[in-house]
Specification:
This is acetate--CoA ligase. The chain is of the alpha/beta class. It has 19 helices and 26 strands. It has 4 domains: 193 residues, Rossmann fold, CATH 3.40.50; 171 residues, ANL, N-terminal domain (Rossmann fold), CATH 3.40.50; 82 residues, Luciferase, domain 3 (Roll); 101 residues, 2-Layer Sandwich (GMP Synthetase, Chain A, domain 3), CATH 3.30.300.30. The structure holds adenosine-5'-triphosphate and magnesium ion.
Length: 590
């Protein structure tokens, strides 16, 4: 199905940070872009200084840096000056504990203010910080603490008892556990008294741009999670890409719904809005349609960065958006999974603004491909490369990955041809290592390109279209199809709420396309409906339409919201289920 482009009216273009794509690309270079950050007084670069102190020393000192909504709905505000002081104390405390620059501080916290303080305070101390998603169980926590050789962990009493105490003696590097909030009998020390006793004066470590800063684990969609290491220089890319791809600017009320346990929640849910002098909205609570609309309305959110799963759920709730005043919203963006065109268009109808899809990865540290505020949207497309980002599509071999012959790769040239999406390294937030896995890191490069593992197509105007994961693409009766294309088609059927598609070995076709489908409320999982959906798929997709359909009450998701197709496949074929550390536990029981 072809979707008409969404045209941007002149007044929308005129106010956008990126008004003219061709000019922005032509004029861009990373050296000049670097002037967006101030650097430490006296030399060096530290993300936390760019995010907090630079503003706290100036006219923004009294402006809200963080508006935090607790689970009960109460709102607490922290100014840039508040944040500067508490992060100073945190950095001083870490140093007083004898923790040295470069050592790893982990957090295992819900979205509470101390999470933001611990991340920024650790950066000030020159430590490498790794925020973990608080819903991880003990084993995933242990894996990551051990892989990253954690020295310090900041968590809460309840999370400590349930998830850390059982594994603590298996992480020998872990010298200090500190508790946000109250500490009970027999618990490790509480953070508050330690912070109160520490110096409020700034003594930011003189980190250099290439010093390590952030350790982020990938979502584990395709296998065991990898720890991607980023350096302080990444802040240049966080800042610039937020301006271009999220249209972010000083004074915005910015809500990124991703948890800082994922790279989106740190690059854009923490660092970028602060470097811009915006106010960051953080909601401790989980997704609930009314709650989310209330946050948008009550906080007067201007820029909203969220994910396809959440948008699809809001879409299922029909006209709910009409009951809320969303007039403050200026820009909506989505990341993490393919965004089906229905959602882009629904945004315009129900929320008053179309949704801008963008693409990037834990490894890239910042948005690489995007739809822009001042440019037309092609629904279903991820958009075009950011200024300063060189992308390529590489010809693929039989394993689905880029074909490397004697060290060389070949780019596909024809519009519409698919290839492995590759990026030319050189932007500041590019990862510098998979922590303690040099072999795995080296394998992601060939012939001067970083190989993303995703397959895409490019149209004649340079817009990129997601096809699938390179090792996910299904070969059925001589045809190649990405699960996403099939899923996207099925989503257009009114009964289908969500779809996960896999290739299943078949003696005749090579692989047969099988779809797992969750239904919208009001539809029953009958064989008539199954036949109807299969016929619907055949009409739209022809030869690559699903031949089998199975209804499921829900599909397995990673905790960052992606459909875990490898698990659907493993279960279908009775293969080992592999690393399930990032599986959303509600899905774990079938
Ligand atoms: P792992 O690398 O551990 O298998 P992961 O790749 O899902 O997990 P992330 O780095 O969190 O881990 O996610 C990046 C991936 O998410 C991309 O490579 C891509 O497959 C998918 N993705 C992100 N944004 C989009 C988008 N706009 N459209 C389609 N896919 C997207
Ligand atoms: Mg990945």
């Amino acid at each position: 199905m072809d979707w008409a482009p969404i045209r941007k009216p002149p007044e929308v273009r005129a106010r956008a940070n990126l008004r003219d794509y061709a000019t922005a690309c032509r004029d861009f270079d990373w050296t000049t872009a670097r002037s967006a950050v101030s650097g430490l007084p006296g030399g060096g670069l530290n993300i936390a200084y760019e995010a907090v102190d630079r503003h706290a020393e100036g006219p923004r000192a009294g402006q809200a840096a963080l508006r935090w909504i607790d689970t009960a709905g109460g709102v607490t505000e922290f100014t840039y000056a508040d944040l500067a002081e508490r992060t100073n104390r945190f950095a001083a405390m870490v140093r007083d504990l004898g923790v040295r620059q470069g050592e790893r501080v982990f957090t295992l916290l819900g979205r509470v203010p101390d999470l933001y303080v611990a991340v920024l305070g650790s950066l000030k101390a020159g430590c490498v910080v790794s925020p973990l998603f608080s819903a991880f169980g003990p084993e995933p926590v242990r894996q990551r603490l051990a892989l990253g050789e954690a020295t310090v962990l900041v968590t809460t009493s309840s999370l400590y008892r349930r998830k850390v105490r059982p594994i603590r003696d298996r992480v020998p590097s872990l010298r200090h556990v500190l508790l946000s909030g109250a500490a009970g009998e027999g618990d490790p020390p509480a953070l508050d008294p330690l912070l109160a006793a520490s110096s409020p004066e700034a003594q930011i470590a003189r980190t250099a741009p290439e010093d390590p800063a952030l350790l982020h684990f990938t979502s584990g969609t395709t296998g065991a999670p990898k720890g991607a290491l980023h350096v302080h220089d990444a802040v240049v890319a966080h800042h610039v890409t937020a301006a271009y791809a999220l249209d972010l600017r000083a004074g915005d009320m910015f809500w990124c719904t991703a948890d800082p346990g994922w790279v989106t929640g740190t690059s854009y849910g923490l660092i970028a809005p602060l470097t811009h002098g915006a106010t960051l909205v953080s909601d401790e609570g989980d997704f609930e349609a009314h709650r989310w609309y209330r946050v948008l309305e009550q906080q007067r959110v201007t820029v909203w960065y969220t994910a396809p799963t959440a948008l699809r759920m809001l879409m299922r709730h029909g006209g709910l958006a009409d009951r809320y005043d969303l007039s403050a919203l200026r820009f909506i963006a989505s990341v993490g999974e393919p965004l089906n065109p229905e959602v882009v268009v629904w945004g315009e109808e129900a929320l008053g603004l179309p949704v801008h899809d963008n693409w990037w990865q834990t490894e890239t540290g910042a948005i690489m491909i995007s739809n822009f505020a001042g440019e037309d949207i092609r629904p279903g497309s991820m958009g075009r490369p950011l200024p300063g980002i060189e992308t390529g599509l590489l010809r693929r071999g039989p394993d689905g990955r880029a074909l490397v012959t004697e060290g060389r790769v070949q780019q596909v040239t024809e519009p519409g041809e698919d290839g492995e999406l590759a990026l030319r390294p050189g932007w500041p937030s590019m990862f510098r290592a998979y922590w303690n896995e040099p072999g795995r890191y080296a394998k992601t490069f060939a012939d001067g390109w970083y190989l993303s593992g995703d397959v895409a197509r490019r149209d004649a105007d340079g817009y990129y279209w997601f096809v699938g994961r390179a090792d996910d693409v299904i070969k059925s009766a001589g045809h190649l199809v990405g699960p996403f294309e099939v899923e996207s088609t099925l989503l257009a059927h009114p009964a289908v709420a969500e779809a996960g598609v896999i290739g299943k070995p078949d003696p005749v076709a090579g692989e047969l396309v099988k779809a797992f489908v969750a239904l919208n409320p009001g539809h029953d999982a009958t064989s008539e409906l199954a036949s109807e959906i299969l016929a619907f798929g055949r009409r739209a997709l022809g030869a690559v339409a699903p031949k089998e359909i199975e209804f499921a009450t829900q599909l397995p998701h990673t905790r960052s919201g992606k459909v875990m197709r490898r698990l659907l496949k493993a279960r279908e074929l009775n293969l080992p289920e592999g690393d399930l550390s990032t599986l959303e536990t509600a899905d774990a029981a079938r």
